[in-house]
Design brief:
It comes from Paractinoplanes durhamensis. Helix content is 45%, strand content 12%. It is α+β, with helices and mostly antiparallel strands. Helix 1 runs antiparallel to helix 4 and helix 2 crosses helix 4.
C-alpha cells in the first residue's frame, strides 16, 4: 500500500517489497518517479545533501544560494521540486525560508532500492 499527502512522501507498507523482489505497478511507479526525478538533477542532489547534512537539522535558503552560480529564482525552483517530491519541508520565518530533510522520503527510496540479498 502507498500513501501520499502534500507533506508526507509516498510510504511503502510493511509488506512492500524492494523493486529487486517484486515489480512496481503503474500507480506505484508514478508515485515514486517524482522522487527519483528530483534527485536526477545535480543541483537538487547537492541541495538535498546540504540540507540533510546541515547542523541543527535545518538550513536557511540564504545559506544555500551562495554555493551555486545560479539565480535565487532558479534555486527556489529546485527547492520547490524537492519539496513537491516529499524529500524536504520548509518554514518561512520573516523574509527567509528554512529547509529540513523529510527522513521518510530517503527511507522510502532506500527501501525500494534495497538489493541486499543480491550482493
Amino acid at each position: 500500500m502507498l500513501s501520499k499527502s502534500p507533506q508526507e512522501p509516498a510510504v511503502v507498507a510493511v509488506d512492500g517489497a524492494p523493486i529487486a523482489h517484486a515489480p512496481l505497478d503503474a500507480v506505484q511507479a508514478s508515485r515514486f518517479a517524482p522522487m527519483f526525478k528530483a534527485l536526477g538533477d545535480p543541483v537538487r542532489l547537492r541541495l538535498l545533501s546540504m540540507i540533510a547534512s546541515a547542523g541543527g537539522g535545518e538550513v536557511c535558503v540564504c545559506d544555500l544560494t551562495g554555493a551555486f552560480h545560479l539565480t535565487g529564482p532558479t534555486i527556489s525552483h529546485h527547492l520547490r521540486v524537492l519539496r513537491e517530491a516529499g524529500l524536504v519541508d520548509s518554514d518561512r520565518r520573516g523574509t527567509w525560508v528554512y529547509y529540513r530533510l523529510i527522513p521518510a522520503g530517503l527511507t522510502v527510496l532506500a527501501a525500494l532500492l534495497d538489493a541486499g540479498t543480491f550482493i
